[in-house]
């Protein structure tokens, strides 16, 4: 669902903020990434990282062949190129009945580890040493509490951020959103799926941790931007009623329209005098058409005049955004004008028709 995708994007954003805080702490303390985390420094030189502006890496990498890609850290495909609205997890008609979303970042050209190959050289070394990534059964058992826990909304700054905190943050995201059968699993294209979590090797946090979810974050943002956000605008920026409020107005409008027709035909077949009495039909017809059109457009002109918008049934908030008020004003004006025209047409018809007492 789009709510899970949005939460994933927010958690990844917080994870990246945690990584930025770690690199800034290193810089403030006078230490370099090359000394504290040489594996990540080598990875960032070989593949690039959207944290590069914070790293202050030497211009001359120590690797033997800097011009060729490092086979230890494969590069992921462009997440924007993988986005297909028809197969997005937010789309009920897409694969597996749900659609995923994409994220944005300041540097779309930056690369991140391929999820399916994300363990890279560290994963190969781990397999040789018999320390592979957590199996699903083990991950579900040992980290069930962590997976159920929510990400903190505030990063504690009573002490410097440590690499272990980065790994714990990445684990929480992986087992919550990307682990098969996770609590709030989202669905991604095969090229962006993370099948195994890169474990620490010999006490060193995997260099894939900071950029592990960046490509997925971009993909999630793209899907939200192209699907969920337009639907949100249609529901909130172009309307001020909930579906329940629209149904209530539909029922009330039909009742008013029925009452207007009953009154109109009664005045005709009773041959009520004077004929100008039929002008009272303006009220039921006007209320009926305003209610019916309000239901159709999910927009109430009365709520617009009160500068309110319905969030949940019979709960309202003030509209503070001028652009939203402008959009609602245009649509409310269309509803009022259309209601007046329809009312005038029907009142004229029922007024000029000669009466005939049955």
Automatic annotation (TrEMBL):
Instruction: Report TM segments.
Output: 250-272, 279-299, 328-353
Q: Does the keyword Membrane apply?
A: yes
User: PROSITE patterns, per this entry?
Assistant: RGS (PS50132)
**GO CC annotations on file:** plasma membrane
- UniProt signal peptide: none
Q: Where in this protein does the record put region Disordered?
A: 43-153
Q: Which GO terms describe its biological process?
A: intracellular protein localization
The name on file for this protein is: RGS domain-containing protein
Q: Which organism is the protein's source?
A: Cryptococcus floricola
> Taxonomic lineage per UniProt?
Eukaryota, Fungi, Dikarya, Basidiomycota, Agaricomycotina
């Amino acid at each position: 669902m789009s709510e899970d995708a949005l939460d994933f994007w927010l958690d990844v954003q917080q994870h990246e903020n945690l990584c930025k805080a770690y690199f800034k702490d290193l810089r403030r303390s006078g230490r370099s990434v090359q000394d504290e985390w040489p594996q990540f420094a080598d990875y960032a030189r070989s593949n690039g990282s959207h944290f590069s502006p914070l790293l202050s890496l030497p211009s001359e990498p120590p690797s033997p062949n800097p011009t060729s890609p490092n086979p230890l850290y494969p590069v992921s495909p462009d997440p924007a190129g993988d986005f297909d609205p028809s197969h997005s997890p937010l789309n009920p008609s897409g694969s597996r009945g749900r659609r995923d979303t994409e994220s944005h970042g300041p540097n779309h050209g930056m690369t991140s580890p391929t999820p399916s190959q994300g363990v890279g050289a560290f994963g190969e070394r781990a397999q040789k040493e018999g320390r592979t990534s957590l199996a699903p059964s083990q991950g579900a058992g040992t980290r069930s509490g962590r997976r159920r826990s929510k990400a903190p909304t505030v990063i504690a700054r009573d002490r410097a951020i440590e690499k272990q905190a980065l790994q714990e943050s990445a684990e929480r995201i992986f087992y919550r959103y990307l682990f098969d059968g996770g609590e709030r699993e989202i669905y991604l294209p095969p090229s962006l799926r993370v099948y195994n979590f890169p474990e620490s090797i010999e006490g060193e946090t995997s260099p894939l941790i900071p950029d592990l979810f960046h490509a997925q974050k971009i993909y999630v943002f793209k899907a939200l931007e192209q699907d969920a956000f337009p639907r949100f605008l249609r529901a909130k920026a172009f309307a001020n009623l909930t579906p329940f409020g629209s149904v209530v107005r539909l029922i009330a409008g039909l009742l008013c329209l029925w009452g207007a027709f009953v009154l109109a035909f009664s005045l005709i077949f009773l041959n009520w005098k004077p004929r100008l009495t039929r002008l009272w039909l303006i009220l039921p017809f006007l209320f009926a058409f305003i209610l019916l059109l309000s239901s159709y457009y999910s927009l109430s002109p009365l709520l617009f005049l009160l500068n309110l918008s319905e969030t949940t049934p019979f709960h309202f908030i003030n509209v503070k955004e001028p652009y939203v008020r402008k959009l609602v004003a245009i649509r409310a004006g269309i509803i009022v004008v259309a209601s007046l025209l329809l009312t005038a047409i029907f009142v004229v018809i029922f007024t000029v028709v000669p009466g005939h007492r049955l």
